[in-house]
Amino acid sequence: MAAITITGLNKIYPNGTIALQDINIAVADGEFLVLVGPSGCGKSTVLRCVAGLEQPTSGSIAVGGREINDLPPQARDLAMVFQTYALYPHMTIFDNLAFGLKMRHRSPEDIRAAVVTVAEKLGLAHHLNKKPRELSGGERQRVALGRAIVRQPQAFLMDEPLSNLDAALRVKMRTELLKLQRELKATVLYVTHDQTEALTMGDRVAVLYQGRLQQVAPPRELYDHPANRMVAGFIGSPAMNFFTTRLNQEANGLELVLGGQTLPLPEDFLETRARLKPFQQKKLVAGIRPEHFTASAENHAAARLVLTIRVEVIETLGPVNYVHFSLPDPMTGQVRTPGVAALDPAISVAPDQELEVALDPRRLHFFDPETGAAI
């Protein structure tokens, strides 16, 4: 396998549409790197540029240290797995798996040995004489993966390969794909719009938005330390809550003004969050993840902030209740800002009930209201 290095990649279409702006990504040898972002953010365009299906306007793409910008797709030694499987319906599974090797004029003996080995690895050995229409969606996806694997390319490019599967099968295929990637020590550049898929699969995740790279980091770092409001709101489900707030230094200490309520902060709060010091007495955006709210009395300790909310809607999902509420936003003139808290279902709540929720101030995120950058 080989590393993939993308440097200064730009793509501008003839009509002036800017698809990519100065993308820099390095995928290490054997790494599983996921490109994620909302529809139209440019993630598939990055993949198509690496594959040679799109010609970048500028920038460099290298695989294994060799620049491949001027090479046709078939000379790049990369295998692409598509969302639609792209199997030949008139061919058997054996012939679908063998097709790429036949095009490279491998001997019949080598082809059969390679196909049988990959088919056994993917649980397809007893399907080799069938046609794609005789297989389930998950089995067809394995064939598409097998066709890529059998070529033994330098790296794999995968464009939402699991999006056509139902939810349960997607979870199963995610696990199978990760096991296979670890076994092969494969370099994978993987595109998805599903942030859950990105966080569970990627060694690192690259977040794109409007053609720009927002942050590249391991999943935990994206969750705990998002670079900006876009990343914070995209990573995590349900999405992070955002409220307009202010840090006021009063005679009795530092206070957080949130939803018309004044919450006292610990004395050492600014010592651990020094970047917030210049933002005192100024409007800020506070980010709170739904799962960082609690409602149990034992968590109402002095080190925690206690916020009073009025329950509007309750979504019951077995292990968790999503409690929807809204807070007044006097600083922006908005009537109310919606929010959601993920609470223990053992806590009894009902619509229109007032409820005290606690949150750890260390779990608060703050963002510049003008630039969206994390503070």
Please give a structural write-up.
With 375 residues, this protein is of the alpha+beta class. The chain has 2 domains: 231 residues, 3-Layer(aba) Sandwich (Rossmann fold); 127 residues, OB fold (Dihydrolipoamide Acetyltransferase, E2P), CATH 2.40.50. It is 23% helix and 33% strand. It contains 9 helices and 21 strands. The strands form 5 sheets. The protein has a 6-stranded mixed beta sheet with strand order 6-7-8-3-9-10, with helices on both faces. A hairpin with a 2-residue loop joins strand 12 and strand 13. Helix 2 packs across helix 3. It starts with a strand and ends in an 8-residue tail after the last strand.
Summarize the structure.
The protein is of the alpha+beta class. The protein has two domains: 4-234, P-loop containing nucleotide triphosphate hydrolases (Rossmann fold, 3-Layer(aba) Sandwich), CATH 3.40.50.300; 241-367, OB fold (Dihydrolipoamide Acetyltransferase, E2P).
Structural class: alpha+beta
Low-confidence stretches: none
Radius of gyration: 25 Å
**How does the major sheet shape up?**
6 strands, mixed
Q: Give the name of the CATH architecture of the largest domain.
A: 3-Layer(aba) Sandwich
The CATH class of the largest domain is Alpha Beta
As for the number of domains, it is 2
Shape annotation: elongated
How many runs of DSSP E, i.e. beta strands? Answer: 21
